[in-house]
Design a protein that fits this description.
Layout: E1 6-8, E2 15-17, E3 26-28, E4 35-38, H1 44-63, E5 67-71, E6 74-78, H2 80-89, H3 93-122, H4 130-143, H5 146-161, E7 165-168, H6 170-185, H7 190-200, E8 214-216, E9 223-225, H8 248-268, E10 272-276, E11 279-283, H9 285-294, H10 298-327, H11 334-347, H12 353-364, E12 366-367, E13 371-375, H13 377-395, H14 399-402
Antiparallel strand pairs: 1-2, 3-4, 5-6, 5-7, 8-9, 10-11, 10-13, 12-13
The structure holds zinc ion (2 copies).
One zinc ion binds next to loops.
Length: 413
């Protein structure tokens, strides 16, 4: 048995032996039903070609303006980077840095690392710093938010059409194409690339780990035998191995409390100020929702209400429930709690939607004589809530849900 033939379920820790699946097929865990891996064409040169195409579209999307706004002959255009700079200069450096990370830096890191790795694998060799590159892909993918930005751009456009003439620019179409291409790129799982790399360098056949004492690497997915030492590193990627995320519940609680406290100013403080001939107006998140509702766009009002108000609140409630039941070692509905955890993981990034709308709005509405919009302190608090709840869900170890549940004959890591 090859050492990468074993796979441990991310959500409940059950060990499975890996079996090949056809493209578009999914391998599900026998106990918690979560998808462990998908069948894709694991052809490195094909992956390299798609990644290169996505990278070119990414550069076009970043360089060209996304939309242009015309008011009585005054025009203003916004590129993504230009909008981030406007936000930075408007005394919101932290929010600007977060938007830059999630929409420019991390997608670029992901695409460049993936291109480098797949080109090397296609050429039949393992690149230098293979581990570091795959770790970068793993990390960048968790925090990259191109698809959320795309919806944010669409909402901004609809919002602006009621104020001024909106001209669609090439950057918009490039972002739309990039969103579609990234949906394919995301299927190139770093864990599978790790196996492709292993297949190139001959690995010694090692005996499969004794099931009662197996440790699963949270970075590369390799299952190793627990040698009983206090500190043990993954033999493949050298990450520190843990039976469970260290201090998972303590850290989850700390981040949840911080997020819950900041949720209050995020909703009460203004997220935007409008300076116009009629004076100064401020907007909170809820007044933005009401604006869309009153101006005849109930669908948009609903999207922003759900993404900005309901989702963060549900995330806080769901994570508190998961942490509390795990702490009590509850055996109550483990399957449903795992599904809840997966939903929290999935929706986490979508709460950034309103921050992206604010970023673009601030950059577009800059007509000195008519109106100027700047970001308010609520935006900073809101951004912090989103980042803290995402960190909280990453700290929570879903295997804690299953630890008190008696196994049904399966072997665990
Ligand atoms: Zn499972
Ligand atoms: Zn590893």
């Amino acid at each position: 048995m090859h050492r990468y033939d074993l796979i441990s379920c991310h959500d409940c820790g059950v060990l499975h032996s890996r079996r090949p699946v056809r493209p578009r097929e999914k391998a599900r865990c026998v106990r918690c039903r979560s998808v462990m891996y998908r069948g894709i064409h694991s052809d490195a040169s094909r992956m390299a070609a798609i990644t290169l195409a996505a990278l070119i579209v990414f550069v076009i999307a970043q360089c060209f303006p996304i939309v242009e706004l015309d008011v009585n002959g005054n025009a203003s255009r916004a590129t993504l980077l230009g909008s981030i700079i406007v936000l930075w200069q408007g005394h919101m450096p932290l929010v600007a840095a977060a938007v830059f990370m999630f929409t420019v830096l991390l997608p670029a890191v992901e695409l460049l690392s993936l291109l480098h790795v797949t080109l090397a694998l296609a050429g039949g060799h393992k690149p230098k710093s293979f581990n570091l590159l795959l770790y970068a892909i793993h990390l960048a993918r968790r925090w990259g938010m191109t698809e959320v930005l795309m919806i944010g751009i669409l909402i901004t456009i609809v919002k602006m059409t009621s104020l001024a003439t909106v001209v669609l620019e090439p950057g918009l179409f490039a972002f739309a194409a990039l969103t579609l291409m990234l949906a394919i790129v995301v299927s190139f799982d770093p864990k599978m690339l790790w196996n492709l790399g292993d297949a190139l360098t001959p690995q010694p056949d090692v005996p499969p780990p004794v099931p009662q004492a197996a440790l699963s690497c949270h970075v590369c997915g390799l299952v190793s035998a627990d040698n009983g030492a206090r500190r043990q590193d993954c033999p493949r990627c050298h990450a520190r191995l843990h039976h469970r995320h260290p201090d998972s519940l303590g850290r989850t609680w700390a981040l949840l409390v911080a997020a819950a406290i900041l949720y209050i100013p995020a909703n009460l403080l203004p997220v935007m100020y409008t300076h116009s001939l009629f004076g100064l107006e401020d907007d909170t998140i809820i007044s933005g929702v009401l604006y869309f509702w009153d101006s005849g766009s109930p669908a948009l009002a609903a999207i922003i209400f759900i993404a900005s108000i309901v989702v963060p609140l549900l995330k806080l409630a769901a994570l508190s429930l998961l942490a509390w039941t795990a702490q009590r070692r509850s055996r109550w509905r483990p399957l449903q709690r795992t599904v809840l955890y997966r939903m929290v993981e999935f929706v986490g990034r979508w709460s950034m939607l309103d921050i992206f709308v604010i970023t673009l709005t601030v950059a577009l509405v800059r007509f000195q004589t008519l109106a100027t919009i700047t970001a308010g302190p609520g935006a900073l608090a809101f951004c912090a809530v989103v980042v803290l709840t995402m960190l909280a869900s990453m700290q929570f170890d879903p295997r804690l849900i299953w630890d008190p549940v008696p196994p049904n004959g399966e072997k665990h890591a």
